[in-house]
Automatic annotation (TrEMBL):
The chain crosses the membrane at residues 44-69, 90-111, 117-134, 170-189, 196-221, 233-251, 272-291, 357-375. GO terms for cellular component: membrane. One of its GO terms (molecular function) is acyltransferase activity, transferring groups other than amino-acyl groups. It comes from Fibrella rubiginis. This is Acyltransferase.
């Protein structure tokens, strides 16, 4: 009988190619959801936007936890003496990756007098848009989507210190506590009658996704045989997709039974279980992609298109709502004015929303590409100076 021993040093943090393809899938879900809102038949309704965001949360939980845990392993004893450098390296690298185009976007939109940016610039600048939404129980217009970036930044404030002080033996129990606590908090908020916005956008109520990412990172670093056994087959992914579908069906059935009320009100499926099952979809999708899909899925995830769009997914996500938002973009918006002009020249373009969708997509990809090559990629090279 062979005894599995846990390695004391980290495996190499190599680039996991298929994860770029997963990023593309996640951001594509968000774009489809935000651009086709209320255009698809009700029978086809699936909360793709929230699913895509949750997959991003799980992915962030895995990647950041992997970096933090392996970086901690490299520190000399006593590790407490290296806390300052450990945190400094992490936050400098995160700042270089996330802040430049985020704050540049806010600056440009503020200068262009974009109403929600002008009205809530303090909240946005502090990565607190999710707190604004939770406090006032309302979305913020074209900056709605920035709530998820705020959640991630708030996790980044807590997770590095937490993983630094935790003994390795307590990492898995802590991840499980994050999951159970997050689900319990969402349930408690629903039972208390709190607005559903609080349970949807608050950082603590999103921790089941990050907890699953932490579990994945722990297994990948320290219990690789268990990781391989868990994700070698696609059965977990299939079961999680079925579970997510059943929860969505339950949410729709509950909503239909209480006409006149918001989809999320008194809806335990939408308020509590949807994110958890979506998190498991992300968990098994990402884990399988780390080991490497085969066949058609491998071809899709590793195709040049998927790889490139996954690489620029941050820009795609950040900019897409300013190109078009089904709920908030006024007809006077320059993107829609140009579209109407194109349709006047080529009337066939107006025969299907598919053409308009492609138009929005081309503009968003072009903008994200310019952002990547002119700003993000050059700045990202600076991260090499701050290696773990």
């Amino acid at each position: 009988m062979t005894t599995l021993t846990q390695p004391t040093t980290r495996p190499a943090l190599n680039h996991l190619v298929q994860l770029d393809g997963v990023r593309f899938i996640a951001v594509a879900m968000v774009l489809i959801d935000h651009w086709t809102a209320e255009r698809l038949p009700p029978i086809l309704f699936v909360p793709l936007g929230s699913l895509g965001v949750t997959i991003f949360f799980v992915l962030s939980g895995f990647l950041i936890s992997r970096i933090l845990l392996s970086g901690k392993d490299k520190l000399p004893e006593p590790k407490s003496a290296s806390l300052g450098g450990y945190l400094k390296t992490f936050y400098i690298r995160r700042t270089l990756r996330i802040f430049p185009i985020y704050y540049l976007t806010l600056f440009i939109l503020y200068a262009l007098n974009e109403p929600p940016v002008r009205r809530t610039i303090g909240w946005l600048a502090l990565y607190a848009s999710n707190l604004y939404i939770a406090r006032y129980g309302t979305w913020m217009g074209t900056v709605d989507h920035l709530w998820s970036l705020a959640v991630e930044e708030q996790v980044y404030l807590v997770l590095p210190m937490l993983l630094f002080v935790l003994p390795r033996r307590l990492v898995m129990p802590t991840a499980l506590l994050m999951m159970v606590g997050s689900v319990a908090l969402r349930y408690g908020l629903m039972r208390h009658g709190s607005t559903w916005f609080i349970g949807y956008v608050s950082m603590p109520t999103c921790l089941d996704a990050f907890g699953l990412g932490l579990i994945m990172a722990y297994l990948w670093l320290y219990q690789r045989p268990r990781f391989d056994a868990l994700f070698r087959s696609s059965i977990g992914l299939i079961i999680s997709i079925i579970a997510f579908g059943l929860v969505v069906w339950g949410a729709r059935t509950t909503a239909a039974a209480q006409p006149g009320l918001d989809y999320h009100v008194n809806n335990i499926y939408a308020h509590v279980w949807e994110r958890l099952t979506a998190s498991f979809v992300g968990f098994f999708l990402i884990g399988r992609a780390i080991l490497g899909f085969r066949g058609p899925m491998k071809s899709f995830l590793e195709s040049r298109v998927s790889q490139y769009l996954g690489q620029i997914s941050y820009g795609l996500y950040l900019y897409h709502n300013f190109i078009y938002n089904a709920y908030h973009t006024p007809q006077t918006h320059i993107v829609l004015r140009v579209w109407r002009r194109l349709v006047s020249y080529v009337p066939t373009l107006g025969s299907s929303f598919a053409f308009e969708f492609v138009y929005f997509l081309v503009i968003t990809i072009a903008l994200a590409s310019l952002s990547w090559f002119l700003i993000e990629k050059p700045i990202n090279r600076l991260k090499d100076r701050y290696a773990y």
